[in-house]
Structure formats: C-alpha cells, structure tokens
Amino acid sequence: LLLLIILIPAFKLDFAYKIIFIPFIYLLQIIFSFSCSIILAIISLRKTDFFHIIPYIMNFGIWLTPVFYQISLFPEKWRFFFYINPIALCIEGYRWCIFEYYPIDEKLLYYNLPIIVIFFIIAISLIKKNEDDISDVLKSQPINSLREAIGLNDKFIFIFEIFNGNQAEYNQAI
User: E-assigned strands of the chain?
Assistant: First the structure.
C-alpha cells in the first residue's frame, strides 16, 4: 500500500478512492490463510500422510484462483467455482482497488465472506478442542533418533540439495 501511494504520484496517475479498501482485503486474506493453516495443521497432526497431499492441493488450487486470468473470461455457468474460492475474492479485490475501471462481481462477496467466517470459526474451535491433545501428541512422539525423524522425501532433498548428492556425507552428518 505504501509503495502504491509513492508510485501513484510518480507516474501521475489519478488516486482512486478504492485503494483504501486494500487493508480490508488483506485482512480477509490473512484470516482465511490463518484458518486454512490451522485446519490443515491439525489434520496433518492426526493423519500424518495428509501432510504429503497438501502441496498437490495447493498446486491444483492455483488454477482455480484467477491469478493468471480474469473471472469474466469464463461463462456464467462456470463462475461458481470462483465464487466459492475465497482467494479469488482477494485477487479480484486487489485488481478492483488498483485498476480504475476494473469491475468486481458482487457474488464474490456474497459467497466468500461467509466462507471465510466459517473457516475462521472452524479453525478457532479446532484449536480450542485440540489444544491439550496437540501438546499430548507432540509429547508422545519424542524424537529419539534424528535418522528416524527425517522423512524419506526430506532425506532425498537434504542429500541432493545440501550434500550435493553424496549420501555418504549425509549419513556421516546424521
């Protein structure tokens, strides 16, 4: 926001009143991201294999978010998938705030604001419900051996990224 305030006069652009909504959109983005992180962390704590699925969900989710395209490019019957994606609201909201003649679809607000609130309520209730369980699970799974604590994927990443493919150096370090 500060950068925009500096660049608008520098490029002799008109100051749009809509720019004052950027902090609100940012707050929605933070609340939704926090909620998703808490929900996924608690699920991953209970079901450890779920942790490996999260990157695939994120990679697939980016194509359902209008980062590289506008929602208006799609026919009305397909726009529902964007209406239930809270990050689509944030992306389109930023565009609406920054670009002068960019229209925003009101359905994004109608669908996504309740979704963000629901996710936030679920995350807070999961924290309260699992607060004692989380510490018990972490205490019951002490790390006795560093070799056992490192997962297979992480092991390969460490060997190739840190030890330049030398498994003997990795084993010696562990």
Answer: none
pLDDT for 29: 94
Q: Which residue has the tokens 């669908």?
A: 111
**Residue 16: strand, helix, or coil:** coil
CB 112 within 8 A of CB 25: no
Say how far apart CA 107 and CA 32 lie, in whole Å.
18
Instruction: Kindly list the distances between the CA atom of residue 15 and the CA atoms of 25, 97, 102, in Å, as whole numbers in the listed order.
Output: 18, 10, 14
Residue appearing with tokens 């209008």: 66
Give the pLDDT band of residue 55 (cuts 50, 70, 90): confident
Residue 45: per-residue pLDDT = 79
Q: Token pair of 109, please?
A: 């607000």
What is the spatial distance between Cα 17 and Cα 151, in angstroms, rounded to a whole number? 51
107-150 tens-digit pLDDT = 888 899 999 999 999 999 998 888 777 767 666 767 777 777 78
Burial status of residue 68 (CB atoms within 10 A of its CB: 0-12, 13-18, 19 or more): exposed
pTM confidence score:
0.72
The angle subtended at Cα 36 by Cα 30 and Cα 38, nearest 5°, is 100
